[in-house]
Amino acid sequence: xxxxxxxxxxxxxxxxxxxxxxxxxxxxxxxxxxxxxxxxxxxxxxxxxxxxxxxxxxxxxxxxxxxxxxxxxxxxxxxxxxxxxxxxxxxxxxxxxxxxxxxxxxxxxxxxxxxxxxxxxxxxxxxxxxxxxxxxxxxxxxxxxxxxxxxxxxxxxxxxxxxxxxxxxxxxxxxxxxxxxxxxxxxxxxxxxxxxxxxxxxxxxxxxxxxxxxxxxxxxxxxxxxxxxxxxxxxxxxxxxxxxxxxxxxxxxxxxxxxxxxxxxxxxxxxxxxxxxxxxxxxxxx
Length: 286
Fold this sequence. Notes:
Strands 1, 2, 3, 4, 5, 6 and 7 form a 7-stranded mixed beta sheet that branches. The chain has helices spanning about 10-25, 50-55, 70-80, 100-110, 110-120, 140-145, 190-195, 205-220, 225-230, 240-250, 260-275, and strands at about 30-35, 60-65, 85-90, 125-130, 165-170, 170-175, 180. The longest helix has 15 residues, at about 10-25. It contains 11 helices and 7 strands. Strand 1 (about 30-35), helix 2 (about 50-55) and strand 2 form a beta-alpha-beta unit. The chain is of the alpha/beta class.
């Protein structure tokens, strides 16, 4: 099966609307935190963000590193840093790395603060916004940054109705509306990565094809993990279909007469991959 056959049923209108909303929000902030999925650092970023940001400083928050291939994560961090980006590993569920992220944002904001000081402006908080694709962990990070006590900052001119500034650290305020940018789906590889990690709704792609491509990918890179998880043995002759059949047999996903229950095994593999129970995998290689 070719990745070129994988299609996302998406409408450009979604992206246009998201971009307009983002452009209006970015004007209000000084630093942007872009959250990426460590399993798919390339596919979870959005080139459109560069157009929207202008010259504003950006900090990368690499989330879900506990579900990604550790060696690949190190390579990605090195690659991103070499391109001039500030990168922080975070685990939104536990709060690991959040303090380092705040420090990185404060450091990224230093040129902005210095500019204010030259103009005689003191004690103005740095305004931050977190952006990223759906299901990457933005809301969890925002809740962890804000904490249980949500302190609403003073009204700011130009802030649209329904948006609030909340204090997350001394001298730092967060726009509490999480920014969402829809990725561009012209590249089938990006669509595939977003589909299997749960970033897009299942009604816009072929779930069966996505899992077949995923199994094919895992057979090549992480065959030992597949064998260990499902108690199966891979052979050089195996295809994605035969491996799914082996998993189905091992997990009892068979209909009457020993017929493969493809829907059930697809659901199991997708769930195990998304939850990290299948293993630590990175689909976007550095």
